[in-house]
Amino acid sequence: MAKRALIEHRPWLLASIAASFAYYLVAGSELGEFWQILIKGGGVGFLAVYVWRRASGLDAMILTLALALSAAADMALVVAFEVGGALFAASHLTALVLYLRNRRDQLTISQGLLGIALLVASPVISYMLSERIEIAVYASTLGLMAAAAWTSRFPCYRVGIGAILFVVSDWLIFSRMGAFDLGVLPDYLVWPLYYAGQLMIATGVVQTLRGEKPAR
Q: CB of 45 within 8 A of CB of 201?
């Protein structure tokens, strides 16, 4: 069974990591834009396939859809920022459904406070960095997703931190829009933080779901 799982499922995870690493190397290079877009979409796109193949049930389907929307957003951002943002908002709201279906029975005070902090800080800091109200509106969906992820029953130190990395990655993007100049820092950190967050979310949720239901 373990050998079969390795053959049927792990390659999708490895393909995702490989595509993510490849995009980090080729982004902004002389490689054609079409190929860069495909490689970029492969990072989270293969994660969606991994979740679909590795876990079963409605929760796995919801996460697969959220990741697929994120992969589509990754590709759309290259040619149409607003379309990419709309797709990411849809991905956050889809993930929100997953986390609300899997609320933690009891929260510690620190967990609850951090959840509130993520909910409030995501749109507020996004607006301060970008100075654009539409970015704050988008970031409200980001904050909902991150707060719900942190307070869900999924592992905080994988799914919760993964969601926080997603938020930080977006903050770095928004810093390019306003007066808060971080120099080349966003160029080096946006993609690694974003992909690491998605990877932690996908594997953390799958780990929990596989402890409850058999794989396909």
A: no
Which of 106, 88, 70, 103 is CA-nearest to residue 195? 70
Query: What's residue 12's pLDDT?
Result: 92
Spell out the residues 6+ positions from residue 71 whose beta carbon is closer than 8 angstroms to its own. 41, 42, 43, 44, 45, 47, 48
What angle (nearest 5°) sits at the alpha carbon of residue 47, between those of residues 41 and 49?
Answer: 100
Residue 132 burial (CB < 10 Å; 0-12/13-18/19+)? middle
Which residue matches tokens 């992909």?
Answer: 195
Give long-range contacts, CB 8 A cutoff, 24+ apart: 40-44: 40/74, 40/75, 40/78, 41/71, 41/72, 41/74, 41/75, 42/15, 42/16, 42/71, 43/16, 43/19, 43/71, 43/74, 43/195, 43/198, 44/16, 44/70, 44/71, 44/74, 44/195, 44/198
For the chain, the structural domain boundaries read 2-210
Our measurement of the distance from residue 145's CA atom to the centroid of its chain's CA atoms, rounded to an integer in Å, reads: 10
Structure-token match 């009891």, residue found? 106
Rounded to whole angstroms, the Cα distance separating 68 from 61 reads: 10
Residue 48 in contact with residue 68, Cβ under 8 Å? yes
**Sign of torsion, CA 172 87 100 198?**
negative
pLDDT tens-digit map of 102-149: 999 888 899 999 999 999 999 999 999 999 999 999 999 999 999 999
